């Protein structure tokens, strides 16, 4: 009898242990409500990072109709989970893979009914996928309506402006031959061509000087667009809305063009430009009462330090240049955003 009781007791303890473990797991998977967060609608703007590129396929990310899609486990989705648990907040996605500050400036000015909205000349980057670019810009009135009904907005955009600037500067200075690019068909052809372009930058001081001067001149335009977009979002949003600008990690850290080669000057330029953009957003946030900057320098990406462009191009998912956070990186950014919201609402 005693032995039977011991077995029953042991079994009960085992069941309780399993149930408690399941309970802990379920609790850990369920967002903890933050009673101080009482937002009615959360709208998030931005590029492929807040969209969640890498967590879904390239085809889904590139779909021109993907604006308004909430990608599971992206950092805005994780923030949304907390807000929904806290106050049943409505979540309104407005991020678009490939989008730039210039695209948001255009769509916001169109939404505001500006008579002669901003335009981009010689936009080689934007016209790579014209159907996506055109559709996003045409959504100005809709996105302005989403913003005007939201008491919380987050935005992370600008890295594609820098990428586009690199491409446009390379075209404008003759560093890249458009006709030659059209002839490239395979990964090896692309790698060889990139190697030649980078080699020309390294060897010819005149080419390098011309490229950097063009890049620097155009970089000032990105800063102006950042200022205009922040001002317009702040103006469109309700007076008491909180507007959080999420900063970038150094996206090109440690990247090489070809295995075994020194780090390319191009990636130093990209990281320097990103640092300047983050600084610009910090300064802009300080100009307004309800605009805040969220630093997220340590987001873990799909490609760690030392990754090569060669490996990026070979990967079928094409997570370009180690820019996009993995699941752990998105959790980190979400935590940074939630911490800032807790700080604002404390």
Question: Your description of this structure?
Answer:
This protein is of the alpha/beta class and 346 residues long. The chain has a single domain (34-344), classed as Rossmann fold (3-Layer(aba) Sandwich). It is built from 14 helices and 5 strands. The protein has helices at residues 2-29, 48-51, 58-62, 75-87, 101-111, 130-138, 140-148, 159-172, 178-183, 187-203, 205-236, 265-285, 309-314, 327-344, and strands spanning 41-46, 90-95, 152-156, 242-246, 291-294. The chain has a 5-stranded parallel beta sheet, with helices on both faces. Helix 12 links the parallel strand 4 (242-246) and strand 5. Helix 5 packs parallel to helix 6, helix 5 packs across helix 7 and helix 5 packs parallel to helix 11 (205-236). The longest helix has 32 residues, at 205-236. The protein starts with a helix and ends with a helix. Residues 1-28 have low confidence and may be disordered.
Short summary:
It is built from 14 helices and five strands. It has 346 residues and is an alpha/beta fold. It has one domain: SGNH hydrolase (Rossmann fold, 3-Layer(aba) Sandwich), CATH 3.40.50.1110.
